[in-house]
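FAQ

Q: What does a record look like?
A: Structure on top, sequence underneath. For example:
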């Protein structure tokens, strides 16, 4: 009788261990099934992505959607080439514009008072303020208006945005109309913008202005020659990518 009870007790311990193993095996099986489902979902997404890529590649006449595109476009193949070609054309257009502006300046006999240069933002026309305004004034002279017309007709040949910035020297100004050099530089830029806006084919949406007063000098204000260089109005024809960022349309 004692042996039968002992055997029954041993059988009970074995049954408890078997139940633990069954629970553990069920857990492992569930985990395996879970990872299989994850893998299947990932595989499905890859297939969908491949199908979308093929469709886009066909629509854009490209080889693939992911590859070795030299351009910033998401669609590769010819897209990078198109972007490079567009950039090259824009640089050529700005270079041609610079030449035409310089010709107009030379024709007006202002080669010493007006400088035409190019930088990373575009083509810049820097005008000596004494050529445009009387001291302490923001009113354009008749000769300055004629000059703005000549420059404007050249600017009208390109679609780029135009930024006009006014600067002064460090000489203080305290008049009822211009309490500081901020107002004077901004009003000078505003009058140039207004004059350019009157040129046909220069839409007002292309124009913007700023006034920096005496705070961005290009020469020392300790000499008369330096102060003359600092009194200026710059007209900048912006590269298209720079203009998009400036007005909030780009990244």
């Amino acid at each position: 009788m004692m042996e039968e009870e002992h055997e029954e007790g041993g059988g009970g311990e074995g049954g408890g261990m078997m139940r633990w193993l069954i629970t553990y095996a069920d857990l492992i099986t569930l985990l395996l099934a879970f990872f299989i489902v994850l893998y299947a979902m990932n595989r499905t997404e890859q297939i969908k992505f491949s199908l979308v890529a093929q469709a886009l590649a066909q629509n854009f006449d490209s080889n693939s959607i992911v590859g070795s595109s030299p351009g910033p476009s998401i669609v590769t193949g010819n897209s990078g080439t198109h972007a490079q070609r567009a950039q090259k054309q824009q640089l050529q257009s700005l270079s041609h514009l610079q030449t035409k502006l310089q010709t107009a300046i030379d024709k007006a006999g202002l080669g010493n008072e007006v400088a035409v240069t190019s930088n990373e933002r575009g083509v810049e026309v820097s005008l000596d303020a004494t050529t445009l305004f009387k001291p302490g004034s923001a009113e354009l002279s008749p000769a300055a208006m004629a000059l703005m017309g000549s420059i404007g007709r050249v600017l009208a040949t390109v679609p780029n945005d135009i930024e006009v910035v006014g600067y002064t020297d460090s000489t203080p100004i305290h008049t009822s109309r211009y309490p500081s050099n901020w107002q004077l530089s901004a009003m000078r830029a505003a009058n140039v913008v207004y004059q350019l806006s009157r040129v046909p084919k220069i839409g007002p949406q292309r124009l913007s202005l700023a006034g920096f007063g005496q705070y961005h000098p290009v020469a020392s204000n300790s000499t008369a020659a330096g102060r003359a260089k600092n009194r200026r109005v710059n007209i900048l024809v912006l590269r298209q990518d720079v203009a998009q960022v400036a007005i909030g349309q780009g990244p």
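Q: Is there anything notable about this one?
A: The radius of gyration is 36 Å.
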